[in-house]
Amino acid sequence: MHRQFPIQSLKLNTQILPLVRKTGGIFYLQIKEESTMPTTEKLKQEIADAEKKLAQERSRLQRLQNRKSYYEKGDRKKRAHRLITRGAAVESIAPLVKALSETEFYAFTEKVFTLPEVRALLMEAVNTHNQESQKGKG
């Protein structure tokens, strides 16, 4: 909105546009009044910008969740592979375990791994593995 004021009535704190007009022998300056209230268009633009940013952040969150799921899924695949190969190793070393049900197999392995000789052999194998791993790092 523009208003016209005679030059004499201007206050110093108003914004003066560089347009001076002469009307009826008096020079007038055209002054633009700016509203302090945001316009509807401005508010709509701010809402649109905020919604766009929200959509971008949601997309970023989804990508991070997908990445997390991918890595967790990879860990599950590795674990499943390890269990299958070790189970196959047990079956190849002791083919009679194929005849046992799952419950019978678990009961059998619990008995085997409570034997002091087996525990000592397992501890020795783990220690050897750890020592070899340390040599590879140093």
Give your account of this protein's structure.
This protein has 138 residues and is an alpha+beta fold. Helices cover 64% and strands 14% of the residues. The protein is built from three helices and three strands. The chain has helices spanning 40-93, 102-114, 116-137, and strands spanning 2-6, 16-23, 26-32. It has a three-stranded antiparallel β-sheet with strand order 1-3-2, with no helix packed on it. The two termini are 78 Å apart. Mean pLDDT is 81; it is low at 9-20.
Supply the helix-strand structural class. Answer: alpha+beta
Strand elements, count: 3
Taking the sheet with the most strands, its summary is: 3 strands, antiparallel
Element-level helix/strand string = EEEHHH
The dominant shape is elongated
Order of strands, widest sheet: 1-3-2
Q: Flag low-confidence runs.
A: 9-20
Q: In percent, how much strand structure appears in the residues?
A: 5-15%
Radius of gyration: 41 Å
* Gap between N and C termini: 78 Å
- Summarize model confidence as the mean pLDDT: 81
- Helical element count? 3
Helix content: 55-70%
